[in-house]
Design a protein that fits this description.
Blueprint lengths: L4 H66 L7 H14 L3 E8 L2 E5 L3 E6 L10 E4 L10 E8 L2 E8 H10 L5 E6 L2 E4 L4 E2 L8 E7 L6 E6 L3 H38 L1 H10 L3 E10 L5 E12 L3 E3 L5 H7 L2 H16 L10 E7 L8 H11 L6 E8 L8 H12 L3 E7 L6 H6 L4 E4 L1 H5 L7 H14 L3 E4 L5 H9 L4 E2 L10 H15 L1
Parallel strand pairs: 13-15, 15-16, 16-17, 17-18, 18-19, 19-20
Antiparallel strand pairs: 1-2, 1-6, 2-3, 4-5, 5-6, 7-8, 7-11, 8-9, 10-11, 12-13, 12-20, 13-14
Helix pairs in contact: 1-4, 7-8
This protein binds ligand C2E and calcium ion (2 copies).
């Protein structure tokens, strides 16, 4: 069965909703886990960096104390202060050497005593700190140099780079740390970079020292986030995926239930499953009582409810607009079933379909009728469209064109349930009405209510004067039949002659009658 565009769209919507409700908890869950993991990593990086700053400050405090101690000696001859410098090296942890400066020149060191080397303040970040990859004595060992100056006097204290590396690698083995002074930086592997350091790719944090001009950068390498999620949140991730599946399945199940319980989608389902079938009620000639045609009455062959009467579902079908494709399907099915037996029907055999007012506002009806007629040998049958007087078609340019074309095709129009509505003469003309079908309520009054006969009589008179054919519906008794025949009513329809028949029964009767006549 081919899916219509509307159905395809509906299925796409349903599918999209199920996918969305599956993905939503998963995406949301992954989002929360990633956010939580990033936050945890960032907190860890910050805590590690802060601890490192604390330790580096402690180290530099020793350099500061050593410098404070020797600065007052600056300017004095080296051989007099050399010992004082060495004392600081011995007493202060982390300190590697202590040097005195006079007029921007190192003139005395704890290492060599008298020594001459110019000092370039520009090497020092804010004139205070210099991270060196090595010096002429130990070119491969990084060192951190702290500088103090007062007027011409100055003190320079160098710290072992090894202690920096120890702090960087021992505080937290999982967090990457970098000690940075200006553009120079050193990592836990002891490599000194002299280009501005790039932040770490995951949870990058920079904590500057408040006391000394350096900063500590912390963070994690690429892929740490995913490894962290795997290590900490795998169970939670699985739970969110499970919740997504449950939510998707629930939405799918609810949708199915809703669509099954929605009446119009149930009609749509029935239409797709071709459950609407024709029943045919013969219309007999008033004089001979021979079958002159049949009215096609829709039945719903419901899979569990059995055969459903049209008055139970036609109003809903009209309301939802499904009546149009339902009628089209009924016409096609009727043509398919009857066409092979068309030769058993008298030429000009009438086949009437009930058409809702809604259907008359589209020119598609012309195509439906053309297709129906093409299913039969030419001139074999007369197609009659029954429009109920209860719900009159509102005339418009489209209906005008529609009824003109239908007339040109030889399609006839019957005004159904005549006497129950308010059609006017101009209405009869506008829609080229050929037959009036007297409503069964008037027929039922024959013999029961003396007042009804004048109404019935005047309807019959009117149709004669207007040159319209007349059909009496709901003939149940012989008395009614006789009365109507006497009044010259051309066509009769009712249980007296036949109830609506299944297509099989109808065809059997038509074929039998044909054989009896020939
Ligand atoms: P309707 O067009 O007036 O159809 C005649 C109804 O009277 C049919 O009821 C028929 O079974 C019933 N009937 C026939 N002879 C007698 C009789 O002697 N006594 C009594 N009491 N009833 C008789 P049915 O088949 O239940 O259809 C009811 C209505 O549903 C129809 O009234 C028509 O308005 C609507 N309908 C049926 N098929 C279609 C359809 O394909 N399209 C549309 N739009 N409406 C339809
Ligand atoms: Ca009818
Ligand atoms: Ca009727």
């Amino acid at each position: 069965m081919l899916l219509t565009f509307k159905q395809t769209r509906k299925w796409t919507h349903r599918y999209a909703l199920v996918v969305l409700s599956t993905l939503l908890p998963v995406v949301l869950g992954i989002g929360i886990i990633i956010w939580q993991s990033s936050r945890s990593l960032e907190l860890e990086a910050r805590a590690t960096a802060e601890e490192a700053v604390r330790q580096f400050n402690l180290m530099l405090d020793n350099a500061l104390l050593a410098a404070d101690a020797v600065l007052p000696f600056a300017g004095q001859p080296c051989d007099q202060v050399e010992l004082a410098l060495r004392e600081q090296v011995t007493r202060r942890p982390f300190v590697r050497s202590v040097n005195l400066v006079w007029n921007n020149e190192i003139y005395c060191t704890s290492l060599f005593g008298t020594f001459k080397e110019p000092v370039d303040a520009a090497n020092y970040n804010q004139g205070v700190l210099w991270l060196m990859p090595g010096n002429p004595v130990t070119p491969d060992q990084p060192l951190l140099v702290y500088r103090q100056e007062r007027d011409q006097a100055g003190a320079i204290v160098s710290l072992y780079g090894l202690h920096l590396i120890n702090v960087l690698s021992l505080i937290n083995p999982y967090t990457q740390l970098m000690f940075a002074v200006g553009n120079n930086s050193i990592d836990r592997y002891g490599v000194v970079h002299i280009t501005p350091p790039a932040p770490y790719p995951v949870a990058p944090v920079t904590v500057p020292s408040m006391q000394y001009p350096y900063r500590v950068m912390a963070g994690f390498t690429e892929g740490t986030l995913w490894r962290f999620v795997q290590a900490r949140y795998l169970g939670l991730l699985a739970l969110f995926i499970f919740l997504g599946c449950v939510s998707g399945a629930t939405v799918g199940w609810l949708q199915k239930r809703l669509s099954l319980s929605s009446p119009s989608s149930e009609l749509q389902r029935a239409l797709d499953a071709e459950e609407f079938i024709p029943y045919l009620q013969p219309v007999v000639r008033g004089n001979t009582k021979q079958w002159a045609g049949a009215e096609v009455l829709m039945r719903w062959q419901h899979p569990t409810e059995g055969l459903v009467r049209p008055d139970l579902f036609i109003p809903l079908a009209e309301h939802s607009g499904l009546i149009v494709p339902m009628t089209r399907s009924l016409m096609r099915k009727t043509a398919r079933l009857l066409a092979p037996h068309a030769n058993s029907m008298a030429p000009g055999f009438h086949l009437g379909f009930n058409i809702s007012a809604h259907h008359c506002h589209s020119l598609e009806l012309i195509e439906d009728c053309r297709e129906f007629l093409q299913g039969f040998p030419a001139e074999r049958i007369k197609l009659v469209l029954e429009l109920t007087e209860r719900e009159l078609v509102v005339p418009s340019a489209v209906t005008h064109q529609l009824f003109a074309q239908l007339r040109a095709m030889g399609v006839m129009i019957a005004l159904d349930d005549f006497g129950t509505g308010h059609s006017s003469l101009s209405y009869l003309r506008e829609f080229n009405v050929d037959y009036l079908k007297i409503d069964q309520s008037f027929v039922a009054m024959i013999g029961a209510d003396a007042l009804s006969s004048p109404i019935l009589d005047s309807i019959i008179d009117l149709s004669t004067k207007l040159n319209l054919g007349i059909v009496a519906e709901g003939v149940e008794t012989q008395e009614q039949s006789d009365y109507l025949a006497l009044k010259g009513v051309e066509f009769l329809q009712g249980y007296l002659y036949s109830r609506p028949l299944s297509p099989d029964d109808f065809i059997t009767s038509v074929v039998a009658q044909h054989q009896a006549q020939s």
